[in-house]
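seq:
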Amino acid sequence: MRQLDLALNPLHQERKTPLRDRVRALTDRWMTSAKLYRWTSTNALTRWIARRRTRQVFDLMAGFVYSQVLLACVRLRLLELVAQRPRSLAELAQASNVSAAGLQRLLSAAVALRLLELRGEGRFGLGALGAPIAGHGGIRAMIEHHAVLYQDMQDPVALLRDQLDKGEMSHYWPYALDPARDAGRQGWQAEKIARYSDLMSSSQPFVVDEILSVYEFSEHRKVLDVGGGQGTFLSRLARHAPHLELMLFDLPQVAALARNNFARQGVGARATAHEGSFLRDALPAGADLITLIRVAHDHPDADLKVVLRRIHEALPVGGTLLLAEPMAQEADFAPQGDAYFHFYLLAMGNGRLRTASELTDMLEGAGFTCVERVPNPMPLHTEILIARKSKGLPGNCVKNVTIT
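struct:
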């Protein structure tokens, strides 16, 4: 009875609450005070803090509008047009088939978002944030693709409650509807396969550049890319490391696209595409390095564990797995793309964003004894984990690769 009384006693519970949590609770009450806001917004020393927070909250509210301004600029090819040379309102209105009065609003919004900037004689040129978009087709393809996500995000609460009955995003990525990725049984349409494969291929260079900039492939002889799509990564890797033999494993329709791509890239003699489902079929043997690039976060935990076990089985002792994808940040680190990826993967289907620690636990559960993170220049695009298959305990890790 005494223990029950203590548990119900608010004073006792407060003493049990960590000091940091009690301090944060006081801070929360202080920061939500209307009196504090009025004081900070009028005080000369604190006014800048109030203004900055107000602008940040406004940007959160207006974020959807910003994304639609960006989408409109991409669909009307405004950034590509002004990248050729600065253009006037009249020129852009004629090229985009939008009235000058309507287009003026879009151009003004794009200038405010630094997608465009005003040049001499009332012309518009590329802004600081518009330049990389104009210069990279993969970014434009992803922006256009996000129109599908925006449809599912119109009611985020319904999305969270699983009331959308398979939204547009899950239909865009057809394998997300089928945990077994059984294309034959689900009757996938060839155009859907080509559509999502093209998008993956156009957006993959960001990830490929990160991998090639930090990982040394010279000590490997044969690479298997699991879920490798059209073979964009292996085609780049073929030029980067001419000594490597290359294999790709993906669904039959996707593997066919990869073979055609290898032939176009002139690497067909070194790169082979194998067909199958990594949830049902054994992986091809013989590779001393297996890569899993932007695949793990597309799948629920149970399926990913199957994939990792199959990879472990396919590797020889001393073999290496390179896993690269966006990752959630640990609790003590500032988030990067976490808010975006959490909802993108929710709309897509069954996947989820994981921290490096979560992935490490799953890798070790699959049998890998040595897991380490490889720092890379742009972790927003991807983060990289290396896992090795070796005998002995986790502390007895013998590297067979060189990390630069």
